[in-house]
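Interim report to the steering committee. The following record documents the input for Glycosyltransferase (447 residues).
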Amino acid sequence: MPKKSFFKPKSPLIFIIFFAFLFILTLYFTLFNTPFHNSSTNDVLGSVRVEKNGNFGKVRIFMYDLPRKFTYGVVESYAKARGGVKEGEEGKYPGNQHMGEWHLFRDLNRVSDERGGSAVVRVMDPEKADLFYVPFFSSLSLVANPIRPGDPEGGRSVVDYSDEEMQEELVQWLEEQIYWKRNNGWDHVFICQDPNALYKVVDRVKNGILLVSDFGRLSRTQASLVKDVILPYAHRINTYNGEVGIEDRNTLLFFMGQRFRKEGGKVRDMLFKVLEKEKDVLVKHGTQSRESRREATRGMHTSKFCLHPAGDTPSACRLFDAIVSLCIPVIVSDYIELPFEDVIDYRKIAVFVDTKTAIKPGYLVLLLRKVKPDRILNFQKELRKVKRYFDYDDPDGTVNEIWRQVSLKLPLVKLMINRDNRLVLRNLPEPDCSCLCSNQSGIHTTL
């Protein structure tokens, strides 16, 4: 009797199972044992690479070694205008809400082992870079202007520092750099967190990725949500480290800040008028000082809701003070843009009320008094989850999130570079497709 073949199926079902097994086995070895190939530098996906020290998939960023006057020199000029550098504080950046520029500069100067979790890796060879960071302290430069009194006989004041001249000198220096000229600035990153920072030269650097706190002073031809990144201000009051709860939060709504502002900030005076006599509501005029910050800390840590009206521009540091205080922000600012909205749903951590409705007598207080304790606790729990995104000193906080946002712009950067290389110079009546308007349609009142 002839020997039966092992491969001869007894039924069509066995035949199907056998070849299905072979197909799965082949697919497994194809997918999991095929090595990755390095992309060329012109590839849109060229940012996905294997770097030294296990920096797989990180965007490579080169930080310019700017002349000292654009970094530490600005700090020294600021200190000089205020009595000189104090002993032991040489090179120390002054604390203010625009400290993002200092934190990013300091972060890129860390050794690689201290930058765990970052989406970017610093490279020292510009030829290997995907992006170029320009670490000019533009916000501090704006307020550094030290004006010295004139001579005793009544002579003219002497200006030792000019922010406008610094801006011009920065751009002139950049325009001499081969990597700026190579791609028309598209792959450069600038931080200009103060609404007026780089105001004189912004049209000359607008191709780059701008790190801003809002679009209050920028036109739609200069900035957009598509190419730029919204940054949080550095919070100025102490973080609340207690538990969620309402037992120690006896004030319904708290606000402390300057009552009179320009432009969109005029709503503040109207809100004062409708709120200052309400029970369980504390609204106070305050200025930037240590005592004011201590009082604001006490107020935010003992209140359920914290009012955030627009200032001279749509945003202000008070919003981020509220978040780290677990005090539910009540945002009355129709055109505000918020940081990191791809990972944070602000409806879970804040209440939004359009300006026209908020200034109606009695409306805001009645709305907030209707919020049940369980809902307040849910808000606080969500605030606690996301507050690390607004802490520049957290190792996995604001700085890492900014770099992640910057890294996401790389495909657009490469797209715009390639388009520029094939298109002729043209005068457009409307903004290019890299610029989109921010929110100009107001907001929906929540709750």
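The CA atoms of residues 70 and 166 lie 7 Å apart. The committee is asked to note this result when reviewing the revised timeline.
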